[in-house]
Design a protein that fits this description.
- Its main location: cytoplasm.
- The chain has 228 residues and is an alpha/beta fold.
- The chain folds into two domains: 118 residues, Response regulator (Rossmann fold, 3-Layer(aba) Sandwich), CATH 3.40.50; 95 residues, Winged helix-like DNA-binding domain superfamily/Winged helix DNA-binding domain (Arc Repressor Mutant, subunit A), CATH 1.10.10.10.
- Helix content is 44%, strand content 21%.
- The protein has eight helices and twelve strands.
- A five-stranded parallel β-sheet has the order 2-1-3-4-5, with helices on both faces.
- Strand 1, helix 1 and strand 2 form a beta-alpha-beta unit.
- The two termini are 19 Å apart.
């Protein structure tokens, strides 16, 4: 890779910490390790990581509170690793400020894919050179509010466009139902079926196979993730 990214890994399980650190270092990343929330907070201030990987079940502090405090002063993406499989745990972590959630046990291939997606997003946000967003055979001209597919204009309603922009602006990040409702409809009461209808409409317009989407991916019971 052309740039070395620093990843802070806060995990108290030595076997998982060794697995994650070894995997990421083999991919060319610099990994800084911490075993507790207190050590993680100190390392975050010292090494200024490009990405934080966090276990929720830390011995000295609840990981959710760690995320909330971290978000006060840093916008660095957070990938949660947790054995908590309940949907409410995922939603709580994401609403607190985490960007993605990976449930233990996980495959190293999926870990690397999630890390790459989050780091790609931060690089694009940092650069912000081009108001044109491209994915698959689609293109969004954000300045002109024009969406095309294979060079042909797509007609999107205002809500469809706002939903697409919100998803595309957060590639690789899991967006909860409540986050999407707040971003698209404001204070309107949440209705997951209502959101599902609009996501289905977008898939019909931008996906090659709406039944097996490659871009707008469902995180069951939690929300959606956009893959460029």
């Amino acid at each position: 890779m052309s740039e070395t990214y620093t990843i802070l890994l806060v995990e108290d399980d030595p076997q998982i910490r060794e697995l994650v650190a070894g995997t990421l270092e083999s991919e060319g990343y610099a990994v800084v390790e911490a075993q507790t929330a207190a050590e993680g907070a100190a390392q975050a201030g010292a090494c200024k990581p490009d990405l934080l990987i966090l276990d929720l079940g830390l011995p000295d502090r609840n990981g959710i509170n760690f995320i909330r405090d971290y978000r006060i002063w840093s916008s660095v993406p957070i990938l949660v690793l947790s054995a908590r499989t309940q949907e409410i745990s995922k939603i709580t972590a994401l609403d607190a400020g985490a960007d993605d959630y990976l449930t233990k046990p996980f495959s190293v291939a999926e870990l690397v894919e999630r890390v790459c997606a989050l780091l790609q997003r931060t690089t694009e946000e940092r650069d912000q050179l081009d108001p044109i967003i491209r994915f698959g055979d689609c293109q969004i001209d954000c300045a002109r509010r024009v969406v095309t597919r294979a060079g042909e204009p797509l007609h999107l309603t205002d809500i469809q466009y706002r939903l697409l922009i919100l998803l595309v602006s957060n590639p690789g990040r899991v967006l909860t139902h409540s986050y999407l409702f707040s971003g698209v409809w404001g204070d309107r009461a949440e209705n997951n079926q209502y959101l599902r209808v609009y996501v289905g409409q977008l898939r019909q317009k931008i996906e090659n196979n709406p039944a097996q989407p490659q871009h707008i991916l469902t995180e069951t019971g939690v929300g959606y993730r956009f893959q460029l």
